[in-house]
Design goal:
This protein is α/β, with parallel strands linked by helices and about 425 residues long. It has helices spanning about 30-45, 70-85, 115-120, 175-185, 215-230, 235-245, 270-295, 305-320, 340-360, 390-395; strands at about 50, 55, 105, 125-130, 145-150, 160-165, 190-200, 250-260, 325-335. It has a single domain (about 45-340, about 395-400), classed as Rossmann fold (3-Layer(aba) Sandwich), CATH 3.40.50. It is about 35% helix and about 15% strand. The chain is globular and about 65 Å long. InterPro entries: SAM-dependent_MTases_sf (IPR029063).
Length: about 425
């Protein structure tokens, strides 16, 4: 029996019925309710098939990226390539000076690998990954949650985040939608929290002229950019994200630019390994990148599935050609939301400026004193804490001998678009 003052329930206790509770009159079709719920859940996992590729049902028809095994494999190779590129940094998972994050959000989590790695690295933190399609994972750490959600909708998470991460989100949103996403990030970060984003370019480059001007790869970026512009969701995120992040109110903005090789042609061992992985991403991912955009928004008219497949086959052959010393540019931006003290100070300055502007102008001429313009200097970048390196990077002594610079790589001349 239940003891008075206790919440413990014994096995022989009965559950009392609330007399004010009204039962549903007539026969309720609970099977229909279950069926509708099951159909909705299963449709999210099944996705929508188009031209032999599977796409998400949430915001159906709006995002170019497939949601199938081939695309996820490409994303995985690209993610590993990024880790290699930053393998000599104190922490390859991110560059922001985040010491002990407790609530982290990964937007566009894809397969969820970054979120899972973060959960392993920070076991006391809660890592949340969101995407339009359920991440295909069988297991994740207890402090990692992967969800299907649309970040364009109002965010309903109860707690603020101290770190928000995004990677390879080009073409995911329109310009106005990007502004909304960055505002949501700003509003849902704790004061002093960080945002970080990594993006790659579409245009393929070569420093030594090894990529012919009439090659498929030379015009690859132009084709995708033109189609994405017609779709209303441009793929030039690499060139616009810094300005939009600053516009959202973030400060202390830092930038790191990479030459990201495609293929193992680079002499530097870090770039060689990163290039091999990046080549895998391109060979596996090119059809998925092109199929949606070119069959819907191709120039001068939408392409057929067969035309895209022929283009991709020729492009893959050029990627495999060891004579092509090619790469793309990539950029990583990390920035901070002002602290509470900085926000209060800014609010005070704004208030004083407003009051000053409302005062009538002084009619007595004021002598003009000579002024001097001092040199401007940028504040030093805050030091980043050292974290453990992911285990799959620890076993490569060859990588430990190389170096990657902060800023545009010095291994090669200035990039020339081909």
């Amino acid at each position: 029996m239940k003891r008075e003052g206790s919440s413990t329930v014994e096995a022989d206790d009965s559950i009392l019925v609330d007399p004010s509770f009204q039962a549903i009159k007539g026969k309720a079709n609970y099977d229909d309710i279950h069926s509708e719920t099951y159909s909705l859940a299963s449709s999210i996992y099944r996705g929508v098939m188009e031209n032999g590729r599977r796409y998400q049902t949430m915001r159906e028809g709006e995002y170019w990226g497939p949601a199938d095994d081939q695309h996820f494999e490409a994303l995985e190779a690209g993610y590993l390539s990024q880790l290699v590129m930053d393998s000599e940094s104190p922490n390859a998972l991110f560059q922001s000076p985040v010491e002990n994050p407790q609530n982290v959000l990964d937007i566009g989590t894809g397969r969820g690998t970054w979120a899972i790695d973060m959960a392993d690295m920070f076991p006391s933190a809660m890592i949340r990954g969101v995407d339009l399609f359920p991440p295909p994972v069988d297991w994740m750490p207890p402090n990692c949650v992967l969800e299907v959600d649309d970040v364009l909708q109002e965010w309903t998470w109860r707690e603020s985040f101290d770190f928000i991460h995004m990677s390879i989100m080009l073409g995911a949103f329109s310009t106005d939608e990007w502004e909304r996403v960055y505002k949501q990030c700003y509003d849902n970060l704790t004061p002093g929290g960080w945002i970080e984003q990594f993006e790659g370019a579409c245009h393929i480059m070569s420093d030594d002229g090894s990529l012919p001007e009439d090659s498929i790869l030379a015009s690859w970026g132009d084709n995708l950019i033109a189609a994405s512009n017609k779709s209303g969701r441009p793929m030039g995120t690499l060139d616009t994200m810094r300005e939009q992040i600053e516009k959202a109110g973030f400060i202390d903005v830092h930038e790191k630019v990479y030459k990201w090789p495609i293929g193992g042609w680079a002499k530097d061992p870090v770039l060689k390994e990163a290039g091999r992985l990046n080549s895998t991403m391109w060979k596996s991912g090119m059809e998925g990148w092109a199929m949606y955009l070119l069959t819907r928004y191709g120039t001068p008219k939408p392409w057929s599935k067969q035309e895209v497949q022929v283009l991709v086959a020729k492009a893959r052959a050029e990627v495999k050609n060891p004579a092509h010393h090619i790469y793309i540019l990539a950029r990583r931006i990390w920035a901070r939301k002002p602290t509470s003290e900085e926000l209060a100070k800014e609010s005070k300055v704004t208030s004083e400026s407003t009051q000053s502007a409302q005062q009538p102008p002084h009619r007595t001429p004021t002598p003009v004193a000579e002024s001097s313009i001092g040199s401007k200097s940028r504040s030093p970048s805050p030091e980043r804490p050292t974290h453990a390196t992911p285990p799959y990077l620890e076993s490569s002594p060859e990588l430990e001998k190389s170096s990657v610079t902060d800023g545009t790589s010095t291994r090669g001349s200035s990039p020339q678009k081909t």
